[in-house]
């Protein structure tokens, strides 16, 4: 009544779409049985993949059982990272994945190694729907999702079939993979010396930084800072050159605290130009539906040609920020 397998080999050819990432094309993977019927019986994995647009390569090989013991290497691998709107990338990495403890104990799976980001393009890829909120002193909310109710339409259906609870009132219960919970990142350094680029209609910038990945596969954490090298923020047909900008990761989650200062010349309705500083501060916070959303605060201040015969936009004028907006 027992089914015994010997020299089993399973081939997979196709596409993988890991959660939080994107399509990994041209995957060729083989799982093979070794030492069948012997004390060292187990399974090995050999896998290769080609990056998006045919750029770069990924190789994974090693043991799946009786214990995980894998080596992964990426060379200029184009991996989309949907969780951060990463459209294109060139990633080089060497990682080791080793299960600890005895067979059958489901011990921690330690991930060690290093990652280098040669290039990464961040952006939604289309017309951005992002809108900078008005400054607080201009009489608007400081950011976040709008609480304005949607438009109501007449329906021929009875009310019982047209009235539904608001999605945000029902927090989604996220299922956590036991395997992801066992994955433990051992302070993996991630270096990005200057290849990160933000490409959105609201902002374009080049970034560099160094981060450290820790935590588990189900609750990863980043520590470090990414800084802006150069770039612009575009607001209402006005372009502001970035003076300084940073994304600081505190090591408690994947979400950073953002800070940007940019300056540009803005035309007055009566003629002439004034120098305006745009300060942005943003942070991610939990939402009722269990997700994290970015809230942005903005501040506008005049830095050049603030007082003229037609306007007083100096800091002594309490209405200056509202007039600038």
Quick check: average pLDDT?
Answer: 82
Q: Please, how many helices?
A: 2
Share of β-strand residues: over 45%
Biggest beta sheet summary: 15 strands, mixed
The shape, in one word, is elongated
Percentage of helical residues?
Answer: under 10%
Q: Give the helix/strand class.
A: mainly beta
What is the quaternary state of this protein? single chain
Low-confidence blocks of residues: 127-131, 137-171
Q: Could you give the distance between the termini?
A: 78 Å
**Rg on CA atoms, Å:** 26 Å
| Overall number of strands | 15
Order of helices and strands: EEEEEEEHEEEEEEEEH
Describe this structure in words.
It is a single chain. By secondary structure, the protein is mainly beta. Helix content is 3%, strand content 52%. It contains two helices and 15 strands. It has helices spanning 178-182, 320-324, and strands at 9-16, 24-34, 42-50, 57-65, 69-77, 86-99, 109-122, 183-185, 188-199, 203-215, 220-235, 238-250, 257-267, 273-286, 292-304. It has a 15-stranded mixed β-sheet that branches. Strand 1 and strand 2 (24-34) form a beta hairpin. The longest helix has 5 residues, at 178-182. The radius of gyration is 26 Å and the shape is elongated. Mean pLDDT is 82; it is low at 127-131 and 137-171.
